[in-house]
Amino acid sequence: MTTFGERLRQARKRKGLSQMDVFDAIGLSNKSLSRYEKGDTAPSPETIKRLARLYDVSAEYILGLSSEMGHSADNAQEGENLIDMTDNRSSAEKLLSFISASPTVFHAVDNISRKLSNEGFKPLNEWEDWQLDRGESYFTTRNGSALIAFRIGSGDVQGFNIYAAHCDSPTFKLKPLSEMLTLGHYVRLDTERYGGGIMPSWLDRPLSIAGRAIVQTQSGLKSVLVNLSDTTVVIPNVCSHFQRNINDGYNYNPQTDTIPLLGSEKAEGSLAALVAEAAGVKEKEVVSADLYLYNKTPGVIWGDGGEYVSTPKLDDLQCVYAGLQGILNGSNDGTVSVYAVFDNEEVGSSTKQGADSDFLLGVIDRICASLGKSRAQMQPQSFVVSADNAHAVHPNHPEYADPQNRPFMNEGIVIKFNARQSYATDAVSDAIFRKICASVAVPVQSFANRSDMAGGGTLGNISATRFSVNTVDIGLAQLAMHSSYETGGSYDTLYLERAAAEFFRTKITRTPDGGYELEA
Hints:
It is a single chain. By secondary structure, the chain is of the alpha/beta class. The protein has helices at residues 4-14, 19-26, 30-38, 45-55, 59-62, 82-100, 105-118, 270-279, 314-329, 359-371, 375-378, 427-439, 459-466, 490-505, and strands at 122-124, 137-142, 146-152, 159-166, 171-182, 186-194, 207-217, 220-227, 261-264, 286-295, 300-302, 308-311, 335-342, 383-387, 390-391, 413-416, 444-447, 470-475, 477-479, 486-489, 507-510, 516-519. Helix 6 packs across helix 14. The longest helix is centred in the N-terminal third of the chain and has 19 residues, at 82-100.
């Protein structure tokens, strides 16, 4: 695959322009352009826009998302800037569509599976023998809520490039016997918290129910996706007249304050019928179900030029989506490219489908066996990008951010650091990832918690206990993490798409002197 600088040079040559011609057209000096084309430094987003216009190439090509140069006017409407439209707004629209189709972890994995199948990835079952070939692409799932996809290089494969994210978000899960007739007038649903969500953000807004049902068929038990999208439930607040301290730091009780209302007494007994209808079976054929609440509020793109995106489940479906685009657009012959999406990060990852399971290690061992190599050989040449969103500086409370390492939305991918190793990043993994980002003109930022405030953890160190390799913890800056409706930067999604694709295109090799070579 070509580098960012090579694509710039090829686009200029196709247009028949010299470096002096570029200077005459847009005022960019020969020295600066030469450095961009050699990959010594990266141009600003504004410079990239001007060069794409001048060279008449598609945004997808210049950013490494397509091998076709195209034309700068592709899909552009009159008066629109192609780079702006394609880069942030088009990317954000696709992200929102992906999130809308993924109300639960089961739907997210099904959504990803279909996209992978459409791109030629072959499905594998864990319980069957695997016949793997070099140059081919595969994926497998576990529990219907975790997925690992991989491309095996066609050459002398030396290691694994692994991108890991999680598809679960804080929510409420319905208990097995959930309908509660209350006061003879209301039907409520007995739920419990899943993860550390911001509970008030779930109140007084349209919610619905989705998940999976286990149904009885003639051949046995079968898992079926269900989405009660036409059904609305609401968790009602108590009015301020009865609850005078509501704005003074009210402590919500999950057994009383966050119980959703399904309907009046007329709704009694309706939930089972609604689930069966959504599953396309008779009510008696539903044996069990895993059901969760989700926020029905549609995502929106807003701000100057569509700079922000607000939606449910931004953490961590934004990183899931960007990583998917990465593996669909990047690979190299000397590496196994791995895209791993885990479940249950919000509750500790210690499940059969979580990052602390044997799922990833089992897949790695089977790939190694197919290549005739041991894991001990492949492991030292491997690298993990652990992608989980990060905290942007809050406009109303900047005091919560570190005075120096404080990221903002739309200013690039966030690299996370922590002295106690809550994040796995060290100088080696930081340097490698920065070089990869620089090669495709993707800006990066640093995040560290204030020294007097504890932060959260993520996938990096958990997966490293199973497969101990150089790991960088990254994310995209966002506001209101763990709210039922979160806000992030629309440019950042595209930044991570580009960086993820370049990561998969890059062969990372250990040198005899203990250094590292990066070849894309």
